[in-house]
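ARCHIVE CARD
Drawer: 12
Card no.: 0347
Subject: one protein chain, sequence and derived structure
Cross-reference: see card 0346
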Amino acid sequence: MALSCAGLLLAAALTTLTARAVGSAAPDVVLPDGGRYYGALVDGRLQGKGRLEWDNGERYEGGFDKGRMSGAGRYQGATGDIYEGNFKDGLFDGKGKLIGRNEQYAGDFSKGQYAGYGELKMEGGRKYQGQFAANRYQGKGRFENADGDVYEGEFDQGEFSGSGIYKSRDGAQHEGGFLKWVPNGPGKYTDARGNVYAGSFSNGELNGPGTWHDKKGNRYEGGFKGWRFAGQGNYHYANGDEYKGGFASGLFEGEGVFTYASPQKDGRSRDSGKWHLGSLDGKTKANQTPANVETALYNQRALLDKAYAALLPREAGRINMYLLAVGGDGSQEVFRRETEFVRKQFDRDYGTQGRSMILTNSRNTVNDYPMATLTSIRESLKTIAARMDKEQDILFLYLTSHGSKTHEFSIGQNGMDLPNLPAAELGKLLKESGIRWKVVVVSACYSGGFIAPLKDERTLIITAARADRTSFGCADENDFTYFGRAFFKESLPGAKSFDDAFANARVLVSKWEKEEGEELQSEPQIASPKAIRDYLQRWWAQVKGTEAAAAGK
């Protein structure tokens, strides 16, 4: 914030002046540095109102006192900088406004520097309003950077240090102590999703004792290291479950007790022992693995065979739709609930009765449905392909679970480590099935990354989020994810097509996320080539009993 003040300070006593004849065009005095002065002289010094001009473009017009610029005046530098305001002893002093090439300042000056209260606007959109001292932010002020982030509070020697509030353009906020622009000392940070961290901060991170809670009612009290739960702590789930014990890198680690708000299906109400990476470790895990894990393992073949046997062959003379609904993550029941809803809806409204099946991971349905695994998904696609006319019928594949930034569909059953389903692998499985006409809906975080590996002219692809965005609503106690509710429950009934339902669902999801204060919205995606869109319209007309009318258009 250095000021361009060259040429402002004149000699205290200008004794070597070359007088000129008084006239309208000639200067009254030419200074030793070549400056031309037009105005009054008292005892050989510039005094009163006057004007100074130099060959390099510098110019001053205003008051003089004892040879120095003083009082109100206007100065223009050789580089085009302009100052208009008060002068004292040849320097900016008092109220004034300086317009430079890279910044503008309006406010108080002292001895040629920003001092007192002022407003500074810099190139790129940065601006500061508040107190200054010696050209630096000093005292109370408000700084806004080019991205729209705001720092408001105490400044020291040009740095945001002391007590204040930081507000990010995405909605994040920190209130408390700062040191050189980063949180330091006691404070409270709220991120863009509404997660609240409180405690002692150092180097911009939460370290030591603190608390955390989210908008859903989950909360934590205990140690932190680099923002993550570490050391001893208590994690309280919104549904009443609680974990008390050790943490590392944000996960359960070491000795701990997990207490369930409601007894599990196998009757247990708590898990205790040593934990590693969020799961019970070693012998403890083996001793406390729920009985339903063993049940699930030994029931798989029978459950799959039963589901396959129930699949009806195609009905001749019609376009048949076959539904496969997959719930990937068994740690949260919302995914199982969605698959059940979608199956009932399609069996009732879209003619898939006897031609639908579920693969889902759940702690509550190990005796009812086959598990979702890479093997069961591959085998189910092959079985469905064998029942249908692969050239004429349509597969509707619905997958709901968590998703990763690397575009993998999360597959997990409580107590088991199962491999996830990468987008590229799903594309390979669908291609191997030989099924020509397909609708694939993936409800998961980062699910937009599934579009490219699955895309072809005969496949409609709908995803709950962009490839680089999370989706929302995947809580254990929920009946639906945001997208599942918006698309299947709210939009599909009464829609004229899957595209029509998607358009409405996208609006609903955006509305709900805004209401929750989500700044980085999920932005559901669709790939709808003309070939599959036209073919689905034939099927849709058939389902609605208007195939003849549609064919005549």
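Annotation on reverse: The first strand starts at residue 18 and ends at 19. The mean pLDDT is 88.
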